[in-house]
Amino acid sequence: xxxxxxxxxxxxxxxxxxxxxxxxxxxxxxxxxxxxxxxxxxxxxxxxxxxxxxxxxxxxxxxxxxxxxxxxxxxxxxxxxxxxxxxxxxxxxxxxxxxxxxxxxxxxxxxxxxxxxxxxxxxxxxxxxxxxxxxxxxxxxxxxxxxxxxxxxxxxxxxxxxxxxxxxxxxxxxxxxxxxxxxxxxxxxxxxxxxxxxxxxxxxxxxxxxxxxxxxxxxxxxxxxxxxxxxxxxxxxxxxxxxxxxxxxxxxxxxxxxxxxxxxxxxxxxxxxxxxxxxxxxxxxxxxxxxxxxxxxxxxx
Length: 301
What we know:
Radius of gyration: 20 Å
Shape: elongated
Structural class: alpha+beta
CATH superfamily of the largest domain: Probable inorganic polyphosphate/atp-NAD kinase, domain 1
Helix content: 10-25%
Oligomer: single chain
């Protein structure tokens, strides 16, 4: 019998996880999401499982109430009923605990929420029966080092999709010096720079002309936004590299954004260090292949 790979061992370990409670994260402004959550709550109770949800949603669907930031403390599985944006926030919240996430797409252009509404119940049943596999997607950790403050530790952020450095509302072009793996790499004069995980390669980086990267590869993508030099093209680097970005700007008109959900202003001569995060996001793999998802989402025919 051939030896098991690290990936196989990881998948087996997650599949054997005992699921007693399931957290339901519901996009509030979508009535169909609430209706599906209500149905899944009844299904979970029929299977002897404890459904959990945030207090305002819990009342509507008949689940046990728990604060959102405590979901990772109580749930053995997270089901996200929403879009990729909803899943991104949940992923950063529970990644450290290795809790598997099942994403149910409500009909938008979602690459992370791969299960359709019609597949929600059967997909959940498959997971409860242990008949599933998990993709362990890498995250990025970004630390802002302020030039104006003598801090021992900078401000740290976790990103599942991407880290973006971009110009502010005044529209001035940025100058960004990039050092990769300790070596001078490139100085970009551009509207900004996207540093994306393979998962994030189909998000903002794709709109900036970046490549689509197979989501389980150990790489990162650097994609400049409207570069002044046309030869500045997106590149793919090993995720073992640390990327340092030094901001060269005369004012505080530079914005730092994580997954399009968290942001900070950058000052002149501030720098950012980005490297692979300590944790991974455990995404339950759908019955659809990546190629099938790409063909469907990108209308490749």
